[in-house]
Model the fold of this input.
Amino acid sequence: MGHTMEKPMKTNLTDQLAARREEFAAKAKPGWLETLLAAIDALRESGAAERAPGVGDPAPVFSLPDTDGATVSIEEVLAGGPAILSFYRGRW
Amino acid sequence: MEQLALMEVLPEVRRMGGSILTVTPQLPERAREHATEAGLAFPVLVDEGLHVARLYGLEFTLPDELKELYLRWGIDLLAENGDDSWMLPMPASFVVDPAGAVRYAHVDPDYRYRPEPSDYLPILGELVGTSSSE
Done:
C-alpha cells in the first residue's frame, strides 16, 4: 500500500464549512452575499459577541428540556465532569 | 453539519468523562425531528424564546434585509422557532469545567465559521488530567 491510514476518515468541519461558503458564493444571486456580509459586519461592530462569557468567567447556570421533554440541568451534568456546550441556530 | 461533527468526537468526550450539550431555539418538534434524522446521541436542549441564549449574551435580531432573503431561501423562523421575533443565537461553543468555569469560548458573529470539534479534546484532557492526577 502506498500509504497507511492510521485513523478512520474523520469529517473535517472546517473544510465542510469552507465548501459550503464557496457553494453559496457560486449560487448566490447578485446582492445576496453583500447583504449577508453587511449584516455579519454590523453584528460584529455592535460588539454583541463581547457580552458572552469568556475564559475564566462562570458559565451561567440553567435548566432546559431536551427533545423528549426531560429537564436537563447544567449543574447536574457538570457534577459528572466537564461539558461542551454548543449553541446553534437550527437544522439549517 | 456541526452537530454531526460533534457526534464524531462524542465517544472520545465520553471516555474522558465529559458531556456534550447542544442548545437550539427551534420548537421542540422541529428540534426532535432534526435530532432523530441526524441520529444525535447527546442532549439537544430546547431553548424556546431564547432565554438561555440571552443569559449567555448570544441573542440578536435578524435585520429586515436578511429576513427577506431568509424567506426567499425558504427559511421561516416563525415556523422553525414558533415566534415572529426573528431572533437567533450567535453560534457559540464553550467548554465548562466541573466547577462551572468557562475554559474555552468561541463566539463568532459570522455563523459560517465554527470551531473544529476535535479542538475540544485537548482542553478536556487537560481538565480531566488535572483533576485525576492530584
